[in-house]
Design a protein that fits this description.
By secondary structure, the chain is of the alpha/beta class. Helix content is 39%, strand content 20%. The chain folds into three domains: 5-260, Alpha-Beta Barrel (TIM Barrel); 296-387, no CATH class; 395-452, Double Stranded RNA Binding Domain.
Length: 523
Amino acid sequence: MSQIKLYDTTLRDGTQAEDISFQVSDKVRIAQKLDELGVHYIEGGWPGSNPKDIMFFEEIRKVSLRQAKIAAFGSTRRAKVTPEEDGNLQTLIAARPDVVTIFGKTWDFHVHEALRISLDENEELIQDSLAHLKKHIAEVVYDAEHFFDGYKANPEYALRTLRAAEAGGADCIVLCDTNGGTLPYEIPAILEKVREAVSVPLGIHTHNDSECAVANTLIAVAHGVVHVQGTINGFGERCGNANLCSIIPALQLKMGHEVISPKQLQRLREFSRQVYELANLVPNKHQAYVGNSAFAHKGGVHVSAIQRHPETYEHIRPETVGNVTRILVSDLSGRSNILAKAEQFNIDIDSKDPVTLEILESIKAMENQGYQFEGAEASFELLMRRALGTLRNYFSVLGFRVIDSKREGDEMPLSEATVQVKVGGRIEHTAAEGNGPVNALDNALRKALESFYPQIREVKLFDYKVRVLPAGDGTASVTRVLVETGDSSSRWGTVGVNANIIDASYRALVDALQYKLLKDDES
């Protein structure tokens, strides 16, 4: 079986996504993580397009990588200019990468309308650009831009451009579905014609505009492609690129290609989330393989079945990609969900224990009020421990007050919170300001508790969501607040519900701090 090479373009194609912009230091960190993950090629950027990418190639040379090759991206030479005179090609060489990848036009429509040159001239610039680069760079990859659209429009000419790339010395020819409109059933027949035209190893680069990027990549591999391009979490322009976080486990666990080691595969979820963090984006919980909901089970029948045989409702063992089975608890749940959740938290109860029924009834009553525990497992664990009488009373909040005062003109309102907490026999009364009432309350709670529990300083608020529930009229509606909090080792979700948004936030924040103290006690 052929060795499949992974080519990551998160640092170049991925940054073309809306809302994503990496600093040079971020790009270097991601490159190091990609190397640890076992990726074979890391495309660092287009050094001819901006100073940031030039700086990346300078910085990455100072880093010792285990196995990955660093690739620089660019285009074929400009028309009417020799390769030696073309600034883009010279910049690629000056970046001193391990590999250079250049793209060229495959679609005759682009040749006529974008480049405005003849079809023969386009073949010449593909061939001599690659030949020039091969004199200076050991490995050169050719991306056949818009290949599938070009082939469907004019198959004869599309294949001529690939022959030009082969004649220029390309080490790999990558077939690109640049507009993302190709469907999986089209690929095998086209690949067959390509293999008849050229003998160079083939690669695949797909976009997700038809929601087929991963499927197109996998079917291409099944039909002989040995070089796979994509991005972490599918980041990319418009609808994104082929998602390596789905492609890697599919290749490894379902198609029999060992592209990375099993140990590296177990870090896939962790790495996916690290890239989300550096992109300052909230992870997609429904993402295949690595998302929080990828192995989450809510219906009682499902939970009962996976406890006996996980394969009944899980297509792989989640641990192989660093994920875990999650049992969701809601008013749809039966006792099996409660028991499974208790087992997950190492809480010893059985189906005949009256506490199990009590917890189930409490959940149903609370969800009727607007609570949900799917994203608030920490609150659920605290609920179970309270019902069992095993939760230590770390602190009590005796009361709080939040004041918002509007100042003159366009100045931001001033938010101040005072809070009284009791720890053991001591009472702490303190105040703090914030950039809003919830932030002020959070600051006051932490300030009051830090003298008793210094580890509270480690807690960070990562996400704060508010949802107005249809339980009242207009501003009288009930509010649900979901908070994601964490420290250096983990994250946890908590929930609060009340008609008063401050009180709902307070409940979620208190649970978050309680859970931190519980977690540290048990570690």
